[in-house]
Description:
Elements: H1 3-9, E1 18-26, H2 29-42, E2 46-51, H3 58-72, E3 76-82, H4 91-99, E4 103-107, H5 114-122, E5 133-134, E6 138-141, E7 145-149, E8 172-176, H6 179-193, E9 211-219, E10 224-225, H7 226-237, E11 241-245, H8 253-264, E12 268-274, H9 280-295, E13 299-303, E14 311-314, E15 318-322, H10 328-333, E16 334-342, H11 344-357, E17 361-362, H12 371-391
Amino acid sequence: xxxxxxxxxxxxxxxxxxxxxxxxxxxxxxxxxxxxxxxxxxxxxxxxxxxxxxxxxxxxxxxxxxxxxxxxxxxxxxxxxxxxxxxxxxxxxxxxxxxxxxxxxxxxxxxxxxxxxxxxxxxxxxxxxxxxxxxxxxxxxxxxxxxxxxxxxxxxxxxxxxxxxxxxxxxxxxxxxxxxxxxxxxxxxxxxxxxxxxxxxxxxxxxxxxxxxxxxxxxxxxxxxxxxxxxxxxxxxxxxxxxxxxxxxxxxxxxxxxxxxxxxxxxxxxxxxxxxxxxxxxxxxxxxxxxxxxxxxxxxxxxxxxxxxxxxxxxxxxxxxxxxxxxxxxxxxxxxxxxxxxxxxxxxxxxxxxxxxxxxxxxxxxxxxxxxxxxxxxxxxxxxxxxxxxxxxxxxxxxxx
Length: 401
C-alpha cells in the first residue's frame, strides 16, 4: 500500500477498492480502436457499450458493423448513445444492428415520446432535464474486459493510419480483473436512468494483474459526486506534485481554492490544456480562469494540437482516467465515469505521458486580450455560471466540488 493510498483510505468516502487488475493504457488512437475492435470480434457472450459521441463516419460505422456481427453470432449487444452528442447518428445507421437483435437506446432525446414521459411519471420520475447528458465512454466485453476513458467513437478520436491525421490526443484504459464487475454496475445505473431492462451482472472476474483501482461515478441529476470528491481528496493528499490534463478547464470554485491552497503549501501544480478547444464559447469563458490560475502559482501549459485527455496524476503514485473533464458543467449535468488507479507503475506511465506532452506545449501565459474580447470573455463566463445556477437545485454551489 502506498502512503498516498493510506492517506486516502482515511478520507471521508470509503473507496470500493478492487485488487488484482491488469491495466493497458492507450494513447495512440489507431492502436486503441484496433485493440477495441479485436475485443469486439472475440466477444462470445455480451457487449455493453455506452458513449457520448458515436459518429456515422468510417470509425463509427466500422464499430457498428462489428457490433452487428457480434449480435448476429448470438452475443447480447446493448448500445447506449447520447442523443445530443450523437446527433448525427440516424435510424438508418442502426437498422442492421436492430435487425441482428441488439438493444439500442438513445439517452435523453430532446424530442420525447409523450407516452414515455407518462411512463416515467408512473414510476415517480420527473422528465429528464434536457441538459442531463450521458458523457460516459464505457465498453464491457463478456464481463471480463472493460474499456473507459475520454475517447468517443469517431474519426476525430482515431489517428493518421485510420484516416484522421488531426485527431485528438486522448487516453483510454483497458481493464481486466475484478474491477470489470464494478464497471458493469455503472452500466446498469445508466440503464436504470433509461428505465430499461437490466441484464444480470456478470460474475466477478479473477485477478489478472496487480493494480488496485476504484470505479468512480458522477451523476449530476442524482447529485452523485464520487469522482469530484476523490479528485479533491487526492489533491489534498499530495506531498509533491499534482498533474492535471483537461480540455475544458472550467473548474469549480472549490477545486480552485484547493489548488490555490496546495500551491501555497509548496506543492507543484501543473495543468495541461489545449491552446484552442473545439468549443469556442468555452475558450472565451476559460480565459479569465487561466489568468487567475497563473496568478495563483499554477503552471498552465497550452497544448498546440487537438487534445481531449482527462487525467489527474498525484505524486506519480495515484492517477485518475475517465470521461470527466474536471469541469463545472460535467458535475452539474452529466453521467460521468472514472477509474482511480492506486498503482505506481500506471501512475508513473501517465505522469511520463504528461511530461512528454509538455514538449509540444506553450508555457508562457496567454497574451492580454483586447478590450472587446475581454468583454466577451466576461459575458461567456457569466452566461455559463447563470446557466448552471438555473439548472441546479438551490443550495448547491453549481458544480462546486
